[in-house]
Write a structure and sequence with these properties.
alpha+beta, 2 domains, 8-stranded mixed beta sheet, globular
Length: 266
């Protein structure tokens, strides 16, 4: 078992990396339950003081593992190249300390911390941990599978779009070929719902930073869900300024439909 002072590299085991990510997620869960100040920080639009507090705690928990960190709230710490292919033997942990902060600030129990360890081949180990009770945890290990609270995930078969329930972020498009949609407010958790088959797909009607979706990207892929950027860009990157438009579905037909719909509304 890894220790807090262990330095993680690409030669570290998946279990050691997962241990590190769970350290960060556990600290976030413990801290989130104590937060009472949901005022804005004033530093960045839409950023809460709680985002910064949890971010500091998570980075403190994972800092001893010697990885580079790319966080929504604090940017890059340590060695963080623009592309995973430039990492060599190093690892970068991509962190969203609270995904769904506005939900949390208003008492809506749908927000999470998301952490993804990236090596030169892309996402390797991921944890998305719900920060409010009952503390549902999603994890994925590249090539080994994805789990919800220890139970293997499988998204199941693709439904016809007219029978599908689609998760969205941002204002929905004028054309809505699906049966129903849900705008739940946490991209990381919404995508995990696709991985477990509760939602049939996901459409980003805005844009997101890599921390919002990267952990869920691995979880979805390991559960058999297809994901792409609506405009054909690479989803896995290590830039704090670039944005993507993630789309997910259980099958190629609906994925193409959702991508086309997003392109038409651009």
């Amino acid at each position: 078992m890894a220790e807090l002072t262990s330095v993680l590299t690409s030669s570290s085991s998946d279990e050691e990396i997962l241990f590190a990510l769970r350290q960060g997620a556990g600290i976030a869960q413990a801290m989130a339950s104590t937060i009472t100040d949901w005022s804005f920080s004033g530093a960045v639009s839409g950023q809460y003081r709680a985002d910064l507090s949890v971010n500091d705690a998570v980075l403190g928990a994972i800092g001893g593992f010697g990885c580079g960190v790319l966080s929504e709230e604090s940017g890059a710490t340590g060695m963080v190249p623009a592309s995973p292919s430039d990492l060599g033997t190093q690892l970068v942990i991509v962190v969203d300390p609270i995904d769904g902060s506005t939900n949390a600030s208003r008492g809506i129990p749908w927000y999470a911390t998301a952490l993804c360890a990236v090596d030169q081949f892309g996402p390797r180990v991921a944890v998305v941990a719900q920060l409010c009770a009952p503390h549902v945890e999603y994890i994925a290990i590249r090539g080994k599978g994805a789990w919800r609270n220890g139970v293997p995930l499988s998204a199941g078969i693709e439904r016809p779009m007219a029978e599908s329930v689609i998760g969205i972020s941002g204002p929905p498009p004028g054309e809505r070929p699906w049966w129903q949609f849900r705008a739940l407010g946490s991209a990381a958790l919404d995508l995990c719902l696709v991985a477990e088959g509760a939602l049939d797909g996901y459409l980003d009607c805005d844009t997101h930073g890599v921390w919002d979706y990267l952990a869920s990207l691995l979880i979805c892929r390991e559960a058999g869900v297809l994901m792409a950027d609506a405009f054909g860009q690479e989803l896995c990157h290590l830039s704090h300024t670039e944005r993507r438009t993630p789309v997910a579905s259980r099958g190629e037909v609906n994925l193409a439909t959702l991508c086309d719909l997003r392109n038409l509304s651009a």
